[in-house]
Amino acid sequence: MYLVESKGGAILCMLISLTFLGTWPAVMTLLERRGRLPQHTYLDYSITNLLAAVIIALTFGEIGKSTPDSPNFFVQLSQNNWPSILFAMAGGVVLSIGNLSTQYAWAFVGLSVVEVVTSSITVVIGTTLNYFLDDKINRAEILFPGVGCFLTAVCLGSFLHASNAADNKKKLSDYTVGAEATGVSTSKQTVTNNVGAKDLENGRCSAEKAKAGTAGFLIALENRRAIKVFGKSTLIGLAITFFAGGCFSLFTPAFNLATNDQWNTLKEGVPHLSVYTAFFYFSVSCFVLAIILNITFLYHPVLNLPRSSLKAYVRDWNGRGWAFLAGFLCGFGNGLQFMGGQAAGYAAADAVQALPLVSTFWGVLIFKEYRKSSRRTYVLLVSMLFMFIVAVGVLMGSSGHRKK
Questions:
Q1: For residue 133, which of 313, 269, 263 has the smallest C-alpha distance?
Q2: pLDDT at res. 310
Q3: In the 8-state DSSP scheme, what is residue 122?
């Protein structure tokens, strides 16, 4: 099998992983904003997410001749390494729950804030655990100041969300007052300047036609999207976000235990799971749990989503290709993160949690987040991103080298 052994190769894996992991949430958010049910999207995503792990295992995991110390993928499938398999599958379970939670959090809090908060929580908890699991191969005097920067980014992200929510509330309040002042009910109000004499409340206008950042844009988006957020407490979105962050903080430590067996759970003579074998089992558990939960949500939806069925899912081809792409991006992104972590330490590999930098770029470019917001919101946005960039640079600078 092929192994990444140099620090340079590990950093390259992290950078590619960063791009992939920062892009797939934007694709999923795009589909939700176009009205596709998240249950349908996540079922499609789960298929290609597993397929990515299979492709990695059958290529990188089978390169070269198998040896007793470094068995190839198929050889390891028949070995007695169940303790490590269970750790890998536990990591897949918490990642699956976290990913499923963020799919709903994106609608309430926005792509940018969700990714920053969950990634920062992942680093604060997960990186600390990985530092000790990796026998302290990363430089603590650099690593932990980076963790502190991530924690600061969490606080700034929460303030940013509160400020942006207040801005949107004011826009909608002014819109309602304007409608009442002209003697026209809000449900029938038209905004000629923004949408060209289209009735927003009755859904005859798309968010693309409304001017970004206006009340008309927000209302048109609400009419079109799958998850309705108007009238719901913002605490729901933040609660889901922090829960997802807690789940994410555990999946790399579990994977670390699966590949390095720090707790000596394997019998003597049984080689450690390779990254590729562990990632295969990790993705299988991710897939199984996602299928079970999302099929359940088809018939018993949460957050007042419409009820669906397997038959309706199979027939829903609107955006299926994008959902498949999201699964591939996430699958290959996770695989590359683990390949880099095995070489340079999983604590340093958590630098891929810089993915909100990519997600925020897509959030601003595609979804028009923070358009026409207050100066306070813009200051918080820039401060959050600056602190995040500093944190990632410091964390990557703590990279070590795992001894064979």
A1: 263
A2: 96
A3: I
**Mean pLDDT value across residues 121-143:** 76
The Cα–Cα gap between 94 and 258 comes to: 14
Q: Which ranges in 182-233 belong to alpha helices (H)?
A: 192-195, 215-224
| Inter-residue contact 210 to 191 (CB < 8 Å) | yes
Most confident of the following: 31-35, 119-123, 150-154, 288-292: 288-292
- What gap in Å lies between CA 238 and CA 247, rounded to an integer? 14
Q: What is the DSSP letter of 186?
A: G
Beta bridge partners of 199: 190
**Nearest CA-CA partner of 339 in 396, 253, 275, 257:** 275
Residue 110's CB is within 10 A of a number of other CB atoms, namely 25
User: Do 46 and 286 form a contact (C-beta atoms < 8 A)?
Assistant: yes
Q: Among candidates 56, 5, 97, which has minimal Cα distance to 290?
A: 97
Write down the domain spans for the chain. Answer: 17-397
Query: Shortest CA distance to 115 belongs to which of 332, 331, 384, 359?
Result: 359
The pTM score is 0.79
The tally of CA atoms less than 13 A away on the side-chain side of residue 316 is 22
Report for 147-161, 221-235, 270-284: range of highest mean pLDDT? 270-284
Cα angle: 251, vertex 96, 225; to 5 degrees:
135
Mean pLDDT in the chain? 81
List of residues 6+ apart from 314 with CB closer than 8 A: none
Angle at which helix 111-121 crosses helix 140-181, to 10 degrees, equals 150
Residue 361's SS3 state is: helix
Residue 398's pLDDT is 65
Q: Which residue has the tokens 């992290």?
A: 14
Higher pLDDT: 104 or 277? It is 277
- Quick one: tokens of 260? 């390095």
Task: Please tell me the distance from the alpha carbon of residue 181 to that of residue 374, in angstroms, as a whole number.
Answer: 25
**Locate tokens 């003697």: which residue?**
183
Report DSSP letters for 140-181, one per residue: HHHHHHHHHHHHHHHHHHHHHHHHHHHHHHHHHHHHHHHHHH
Tokens of 297: 């949500």
Helix (H) or strand (E) holding 124: none
